[in-house]
TrEMBL record:
Protein's recorded name: ABC transporter permease
Gene Ontology cellular component list: plasma membrane
Chief place of localization: membrane
Keywords: Cell membrane, Membrane, Transmembrane, Transmembrane helix, Transport
């Protein structure tokens, strides 16, 4: 054996016994490091709550301006106990779902039309961009004059806000599909429906789901404002009613509920995204 071959032979003899242990140690360190950051993400808001509660207990924070977390939690328990929160969540959930469905269908359909057709891109997209430039929350007085003060203007406001993220992401995703995939589908003799199912949808799905997450966030944001104008039910009504009685604890709890609803629905879409796009792993 030459001097050059000896180190190679030594590595070959040592590697089989030591490599798995080394890889396992590196993997273990990586998991510990990732878990450390995950724990820190939870500790950060918890530390803020503790400091907030301590500041309230020591009199550093005026309860008339910002009640203690314990007071807000007690207000939430009160609303849960008397059934007001459950009823408000049911009504707000229906409004958000109806608005998101209506806006999502319109936005995705127009986005697909613009993405597939140059004619639609030249005729539909300019109008959509002009409407998108308008502050949709500023249209609330006009919607009230047009549609009254019932459920319709609230649902339409949510739909208007939710439509544009899906419209933009759908049209952009379709335009960015690799042309070579269409050429391959044409060579294989795929029908238009097969091209849609096997080429367009898998390629566009990631960006469309991002648009859905954005639409959900805007839907809840719009609903917060819409429910505080001439509303007699819903989470926004609870907040508006609490303002009249100077219940800041109820107002903050209502805002926390909106935030939790946004986080939960976003998490559900992310789960759907992981399941729908598991082929990319």
């Amino acid at each position: 054996m030459t001097t050059r071959e000896a180190p190679v032979a030594a590595v070959a003899q040592v590697a089989p016994g030591t490599e798995p242990a080394a890889v396992q140690a590196i993997s273990w360190r990586g998991r510990v490091h990732a878990r450390r950051w995950e724990i820190l993400r939870w500790l950060s808001p918890l530390a803020i709550l503790i400091l907030w509660q301590a500041g309230s207990a020591w009199g550093l924070i005026d309860p008339a301006i910002l009640p203690a977390p314990q007071t807000i939690a007690e207000a939430g328990i009160e609303l849960i106990g008397n059934g007001q929160l459950a009823e408000a969540l049911r009504i707000s959930g229906i409004r958000a779902a109806e608005g998101l469905f209506l806006g999502g269908v319109i936005g995705a359909a127009l986005g697909a039309l613009v993405g597939f057709s140059r004619w639609a891109d030249a005729t539909v997209d300019p109008t959509m961009q002009m409407i998108r430039a308008l502050p949709h929350l500023g249209l609330i007085p006009l919607f009230i004059l047009w549609f009254g003060i019932g459920e319709l203007p609230k649902v339409l406001m949510v739909a208007l806000g939710a439509a544009f993220p899906l419209y933009l992401n759908t049209s952009s995703a379709i335009r960015q599909v690799d042309p070579k995939l269409f050429e391959t589908a044409a060579v294989l003799g795929f029908s238009p429906l097969q091209r849609l199912r096997t080429v367009v949808i898998p390629s566009a799905a990631p960006q469309v789901l991002v648009g859905l997450r954005q639409s959900l966030a805007i839907a809840w944001l719009t609903l917060i404002v819409a429910e505080q104008i001439n509303a007699d039910s819903g989470v926004g009504y609870l907040i508006n009613n609490a303002r009249d009685f100077l219940r800041i604890d109820v107002i903050i709890f209502g805002l926390v509920v909106y935030a939790l609803l946004g986080i939960i629905t976003d998490a559900l879409v992310r789960i759907l995204e992981r399941r729908a796009l598991r082929y990319r792993v």
